[in-house]
Amino acid sequence: MNDARQRSGFERLLSLFTSVRAGEGRCIALLCLQAFLLMVAYYLIRPVREALILTEGNPELRSYAVGVQAAMLILIIPAYGVLIRHVNPGRVYQRINAFFVMNLFVFFLLGQAGYKFGFVFFVWASIFAVMAVTQFWAFATDLFNAHSGQRLFGVIAIGVSAGAWAGSRLSAAGFETCGPYGLMLASAAVLTVVIGLSGRARERVPAPARAEDGPAFEPAAVGTTRWLGGFVVIARSRYLVGIAALVVLLNWITSTGDYVLSSWLVEVARREAPDAQGVFIGEFMGNFCSTITLIGFLIQLLLVSRIILVAGLARALMVTPVALVAGYLLLGVVPVFMLLQSVLVMQRSLDYSLLNTTRNALLLPTSREVKYQAKTAIDTFFYRVGDLLSTLSIFSGLKLFDQGRPQFLWMILVLSITMALVAWLVGREYSRRYSVAGGSFSG
Predict the structure, then answer these.
(1) Which of 14, 20, 293, 349 is nearest to 163 (CA)?
(2) What integer pLDDT is reported at residue 214 of this predicted model?
(3) N or C: which end of the chain has fewer CB within 10 A?
(4) Using CA atoms, how far apart are residues 5 and 8, in angstroms rounded to an integer?
């Protein structure tokens, strides 16, 4: 009761969505604003990425760029491991964003000078997307202890969902006005504000919610991880291997589902609009993406924090895999295009809201070494491994085994069942760590 009287009006408003204690409102507001602006910065340049590579190259070149991203990340992860050991972990988030700001200015100057760099910018922007968001959540897990982070991550992630929607709307409106290089400058300006806000957020975290200053790295492991960074950190822990496997399976399922949707959509377009297939596909994808964004935002705003508070994070982690199993099982029995659309909307909406929040919270009861190095490797390299496995399975299925759409749907079902099992094992280990999070900094 005393805490309720001390809470500000904003904190009482946030209490409609989750449990918020007195003094936490300012840091939540700052982190929500950071997440919002970070997503705006990325979505401002997302159409630039696509426009440059498709006008300077072709779709085939774009597909090669995806593979180059994975290769680049193999080099970036060890380099990041060296950086994290020479820079205060609390400032890594700021340094990484400052590096991206400088890159954007360089790209702007090159564009003004008439240079063509669509392929390079596509690879860079894709790496920026995963690195920037990963560093934000690593920064957030470094601010809060496990108990507070589990309560508050749901409302903080509202900024991510809102920023994605606002950024996509702003980029659509600003592309014609500012041009691709003007949007690069706008993105750099927004990212500069994010850097300024990050220092204030750390200062505003109240002491009871703050993460303990445990050891940043395990001294005995310094020599072995110096060059391999997050890869070795992950290899030392079954828990982290499980989280990495969860990310690989999720993206494998997502990318394969996107292929099934695209191939099926082309057939529908040929049948429904033979003289305007491009318009039909464009309108469908526009409505499809906007529906995902809207539903994901509503789930984040209204349900995520409540589900985590009531069910616990381990059970909340299971919701998306179980929903995938149910959806693809139904699709295997009743393969209808509109049902596939509904299942993919459900999958993406839950992924962007509930699953994304729970995945990030899994690293709350871990050391700084894990929060920065391991998380960066998981959310960048292992994320792209899912893409590569999907590409390999599609190529093999089509070229070697002559598989059709039903076979791919059943394959996704098997992957979803595997993902549910991995999520259960990871959730069980999280619950064990959460129960002893007060003084343990295990990897």
Answers:
(1) 293
(2) 52
(3) N
(4) 8
| 326 three-class SS | helix
- Output the DSSP codes for 281-320: HHHHHHHHHHHHHHHHHHHIIIIIHHHHHHH-HHHHHHHH
State the DSSP H helix or E strand holding residue 245, giving kind and residue range, or none if neither.
helix 238-272
Look at residues 246, 166, 152 and name the one whose alpha carbon lies nearest to residue 206. Answer: 152
pLDDT of residue 225: 47
DSSP character string of 98-163: HHHHHHHHHHHHHHHTT---HHHHHHHHHHHHHHHHHHHHHHHHHHB-HHHHHHHHHHHTHHHHHH
In tens, the pLDDT along 301-343 reads 889 988 998 899 999 999 999 999 999 999 988 888 899 999 9
Residue with tokens 């408003």: 13
For residues 262 and 258, give the distance between their C-alpha atoms in angstroms, rounded to a whole number. Answer: 6
Residue 163 amino acid letter: G
> Per-residue pLDDT tens for 178-204?
888 898 999 999 999 998 888 787 788
242 contacts 398 by C-beta, under 8 angstroms: no
How high is the pLDDT of residue 63? 59
Confidence of residue 49 (pLDDT cuts 50, 70, 90): confident
In DSSP terms, which residues pair with 144 in a beta bridge? 210
Answer whether residue 405 shows pLDDT above 50.
yes
Residue 82, number of CB atoms within 10 A of its CB: 13
Q: Per mean pLDDT, which range of 35-44, 66-75, 148-157, 341-350 is the poorest?
A: 66-75
- Rounded alpha-carbon distances, angstroms, from residue 177 to 44, 125, 171, 172, 182: 13, 21, 10, 10, 9
Q: What is the secondary structure of 192-238 as a DSSP string?
A: HHHHHHHHHHHHHS-GGGBPP---SS-GGGHHHHHHHTHHHHHHT-H
The neighbouring-strand residues paired with 344 are none
Q: How many angstroms separate the CA atoms of 341 and 258, rounded?
A: 10
| Sequence-distant (≥ 6) Cβ neighbours of residue 162 within 8 angstroms | 36, 39, 297
